[in-house]
TrEMBL record:
The lineage of its organism: Bacteria, Bacillati, Bacillota, Bacilli, Bacillales. Residues 5-170 form the MobA-like NTP transferase domain. This is Probable molybdenum cofactor guanylyltransferase. Keywords: Cytoplasm, GTP-binding, Magnesium, Metal-binding, Molybdenum cofactor biosynthesis, Nucleotide-binding, Nucleotidyltransferase, Transferase. It is found in: Cytoplasm. It comes from Effusibacillus consociatus. Transfers a GMP moiety from GTP to Mo-molybdopterin (Mo-MPT) cofactor (Moco or molybdenum cofactor) to form Mo-molybdopterin guanine dinucleotide (Mo-MGD) cofactor. Its main location: cytoplasm. It comes from the Bacteria.
């Protein structure tokens, strides 16, 4: 079985004041760090997570030029300006894989271990989506979705229903909590959203501490 990876390059980033996908995070852009972490240690695009094959990544963006440096496929929203639901729809519709990991560009602390766990749970659970429920909050923008969800999302977009929670209420969803993840996954960091300058600074602090600890 192949697994797809869909990275949502995001919208206006008004709270950050600059493009979150391209903001520097320890020598790399946030989006590159996410891409590289998910396929860390992988000899080629076709293989990821050792024994779990993965198709080439898909970057969802309506401004593809700034992301050409990644060397990945880019796709545009069919319903531009309608938020993350539109991005997920574009990625799922363009993917050749049944199961796809969706990750937002403002989550630079995601790990390959967390990604692998979500995909494994998705295949084993016979559901439409696996969505983390961490610290009492759903995280639908680092989650696994079956390609069939694209039809339901398209119906919602055409009806002007744009809330992620409304989508999840329509799907057969497995929620996974902190207790479900492997011990090596620090869910506090993995599901940290970097929307404001102070949150970007927090990420820098974590990474600086990690760097000193590894010396």
């Amino acid at each position: 079985m192949e697994y797809g990876v869909i990275i949502l390059a995001g919208g206006k980033s008004s709270r950050m004041g600059t493009n979150k996908a391209l903001i520097p995070v320890q020598g790399a852009t946030s989006i590159r760090r996410i891409r590289d972490e998910i396929r860390k240690g992988v000899p080629g695009i076709e293989i990821a997570f050792d024994d779990m094959p993965v198709a080439p990544f898909i970057i969802v963006t309506n401004d593809p030029d700034p992301y050409q440096f990644l060397g990945e496929r880019t796709v545009r929203d069919r319903y531009p300006g309608l938020g993350p639901l539109s991005g997920i729809h574009a990625g799922l519709e363009s993917s050749s894989c049944d199961w796809n990991l969706v990750v937002a560009c403002d989550m630079p602390m995601v790990t390959a271990e967390a990604a692998r766990f979500l995909l494994e749970e998705a295949v084993a659970s016979n559901v439409d989506a696996v969505v983390p429920f961490i610290d009492g909050q759903l995280h639908p923008l680092f989650a696994a979705y079956h390609k069939r969800c694209a039809d339901q999302i398209e119906h919602m977009l055409n009806a002007g229903q744009l809330r992620m929670h409304d989508l999840l209420n329509r799907l057969h969803v497995r929620r996974v909590t902190e207790a479900d993840f492997p011990d090596e996954v620090d869910t506090k960091r993995v599901f940290y959203n970097m929307n404001r300058p102070e949150e970007w600074q927090q990420v820098q602090v974590w990474l600086d501490i990690d760097g000193r600890d590894s010396e």
